[in-house]
């Protein structure tokens, strides 16, 4: 081991050190402590175990002798009158380098063979909490804590913590669920506006359904805007119906990818073809997953990029029989461009860090136009596909959602003009659907005005003004005269409040292309439009998707496996809910489609050793 790595090793602290170690001054004017040879200046040996972790650095400007930690550089006064207690505490509990290199414990020995334990201040309860989170996040069975390999691993890492039983693990998961549930309730109680809930039904193999919902307060407009279909799921259904009609187009692409990754020899041959046509081999080739249509889109993306390489492979390998023809490649490219809109829209609808309700109408309208364009084309292939998709589109989106139409009106880049623009092309000028949206928009706003007026008309009575002296009482009496002015203004405010929506609609809309944080816009305009801003906050918070994007692309639903299905309902609820809540605090643990399809095989150079390739192939197999 070279000297550069010494800082990464925690040495044994049982050796004694001499007091006359080489000293480095703290400051330029520090005096040297090198012994002069006289008996009075000779330093005695330092016998404490802490000196194996500290080094003398000399005296500072005040003449105090200092030492520093070898690992983190922390300095302490080390004169004889100060002792070594502060340095010992630093090693045991404070040094970040020691704690980082040895998370369990370290044994110190002094010259008298007495033991001194340096413990990481972790508790068994914290360890149990981490185990419970691991079970929840990774869908592990409760028997995970009793696996011999897991217990052996924990025992090797530390003797400080002990693995619990499966019953204790289940109790810890239920406790974790209660803690997270309390956090969620606190967040909901602190929410200033109304709360939007999404539901995605979980089912078990025993066909049991799990859903529980209590609503204790009145709904706006008698619950007229309560239910909205998941837009991401609708797009998934539309695309799935279309892909059933055109599976023959992607068949040759799928078989080509399978052929190229079937053996190492074929991989190398395809890599040579890629180099021959001067393409980037690091981009990778993807194979689709049958249950996720976005993987088909990503497969087409990578296959189109290597189009010239496929042609070269056909010439170089007589066994390759699945290369698409020129006309078939044209259809593949058309399909790729057509699916790109649905792919981007699904990802956009499934966002969780920004409002999505104002995105609904523009994207759905563009989807409608894309389907109509394909239906009018002369290509029988895409016409058949679009016909199936349009049938499914009409089933769910023939009538636009009213509350989501209101959401786009509350976007200052679109307003009422965009709703009129869309409805005229869908239903004709002055359609009843447009009048219905206008009527419900003002009805919803009036409810906010009514509820706000009831809260704002409360005024303190004259008796509510405190007084501590006759002089103060006279001043308060004079101030009460202004209450008449306040009451008159209050009546004027009510009239203004009822026209806030009109004033907003009359203002010129913003440019559609600008990048606008719509929530910041309404927060900044709250003094001008208090009730309208409150309504915008609630309407824009409505999510239009119930699931993350990866679930939206999948044909499978949320089904509890055979192990989860055997659990009691309260335990199954704790596992499902806790996982969603914990994942909501950080990055999603859902396996992304790009991670599934990316680099299913590696295009290695000829110079890559065979052993390295074998190890990589084995790790790829184990990863799936």
From TrEMBL:
Record Pfam families: Dimer_Tnp_hAT, hAT-like_RNase-H, zf-BED
Polar residues bias: start-end ranges: 29-39, 608-624
GO molecular function terms attached to this record: DNA binding; protein dimerization activity; zinc ion binding
Entry-linked PROSITE patterns: ZF_BED
Keyword annotations of the record: DNA-binding, Metal-binding, Nucleus, Transcription, Transcription regulation, Zinc, Zinc-finger
Main location: nucleus
Subcellular location as annotated: Nucleus
GO cellular component: nucleus
InterPro entries reported for this sequence: hAT-like_transposase_RNase-H (IPR025525), HATC_C_dom (IPR008906), RNaseH-like_sf (IPR012337), Znf_BED (IPR003656), ZnF_BED_domain_contain (IPR052035), Znf_C2H2_sf (IPR036236)
SUPFAM superfamilies reported for this sequence: beta-beta-alpha zinc fingers (SSF57667), Ribonuclease H-like (SSF53098)
Residue span, BED-type domain: 45-111
Subunit structure comment from the entry: Homodimer.
Name of the protein this chain belongs to: BED-type domain-containing protein
UniProt source species: Dipteronia dyeriana
């Amino acid at each position: 081991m070279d000297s550069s790595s010494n800082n990464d090793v925690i040495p044994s602290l049982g050796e004694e050190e001499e007091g006359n170690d080489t000293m480095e001054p703290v400051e330029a004017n520090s005096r040297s402590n090198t012994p002069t040879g006289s008996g009075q200046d000779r330093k005695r040996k330092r016998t404490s175990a802490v000196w194996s972790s500290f080094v003398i650095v000399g005296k500072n400007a005040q003449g105090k002798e200092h030492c520093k930690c070898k690992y983190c550089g922390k300095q302490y006064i080390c004169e004889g009158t100060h002792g070594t207690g502060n340095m010992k505490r630093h090693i045991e509990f404070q040094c970040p380098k020691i704690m980082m290199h040895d998370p369990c414990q370290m044994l110190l020995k002094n010259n008298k063979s007495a033991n001194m334990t340096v413990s990481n201040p972790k508790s068994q309860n914290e360890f149990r909490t981490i185990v419970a989170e691991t079970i929840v996040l990774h869908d592990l069975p409760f028997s995970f804590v009793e696996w011999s390999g897991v217990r052996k691993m924990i025992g090797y890492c530390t003797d400080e913590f002990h693995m619990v039983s499966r019953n204790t693990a289940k109790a810890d998961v239920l406790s974790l669920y209660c803690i997270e549930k309390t956090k969620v309730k606190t967040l909901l109680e602190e929410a200033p506006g109304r709360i939007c809930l999404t539901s995605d039904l979980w089912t078990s193999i025993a066909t049991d359904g799990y859903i529980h919902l209590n609503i204790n307060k009145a709904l706006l407009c008698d619950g007229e805007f309560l239910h909205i279909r998941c837009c991401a799921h609708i797009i998934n259904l539309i695309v799935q119906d279309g892909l059933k009609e055109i599976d023959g187009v992607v068949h040759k692409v799928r078989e080509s990818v399978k052929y190229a990754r079937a053996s190492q020899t074929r991989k190398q041959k395809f890599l040579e073809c890629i180099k021959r046509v001067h393409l980037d081999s690091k981009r990778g080739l993807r194979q689709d997953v049958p249950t996720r249509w976005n993987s088909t889109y990503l497969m087409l993306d990578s296959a189109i990029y290597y189009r010239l390489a496929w042609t070269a492979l056909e010439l170089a390998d007589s066994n390759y029989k699945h290369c698409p023809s020129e006309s078939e490649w044209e259809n593949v490219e058309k399909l790729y461009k057509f699916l790109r809109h649905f792919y981007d829209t699904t990802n956009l609808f499934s966002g969780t860090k920004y409002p999505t309700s104002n995105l609904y109408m523009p994207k759905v309208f563009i989807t409608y136009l894309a389907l109509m364009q394909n239906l009018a084309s002369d290509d029988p292939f895409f016409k058949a596909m679009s016909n199936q998709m349009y049938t499914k589109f009409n089933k769910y989106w023939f009538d636009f959602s009213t509350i989501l139409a209101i959401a786009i009106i509350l976007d200052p880049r679109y307003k009422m003009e965009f709703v009129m623009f869309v409805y005229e092309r869908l239903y004709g000028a002055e359609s009843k659907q447009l009048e219905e949206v206008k009527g419900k928009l003002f009805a919803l706003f009036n409810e906010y005005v009514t509820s706000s007026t009831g809260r704002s008309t409360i005024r303190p009575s004259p008796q509510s003004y405190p007084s501590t002296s006759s002089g103060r009482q006279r001043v308060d009496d004079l101030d009460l005269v202004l209450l008449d002015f306040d009451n008159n203004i209050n009546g004027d405010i009510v009239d203004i409040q009822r026209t806030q929506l009109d004033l907003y609609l009359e203002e010129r809309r913003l440019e559609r292309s600008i990048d606008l944080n719509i929530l910041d816009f309404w927060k900044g305009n709250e003094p001008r439009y208090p009730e309208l801003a409150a309504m915008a906050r609630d309407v824009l918070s409505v999510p239009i998707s119930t699931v993350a994007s990866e679930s939206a692309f999948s044909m499978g639903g949320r089904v509890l496996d055979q192990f989860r299905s055997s659990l009691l309902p309260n335990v199954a609820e704790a596992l499902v809910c806790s996982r969603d809540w914990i994942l909501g605090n950080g990055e999603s643990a859902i396996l992304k489609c790009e991670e599934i399809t990316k680099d299913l095989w590696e295009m290695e150079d000829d110079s890559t050793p065979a052993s390295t390739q074998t190890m990589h192939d084995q790790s790829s197999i184990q990863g799936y």
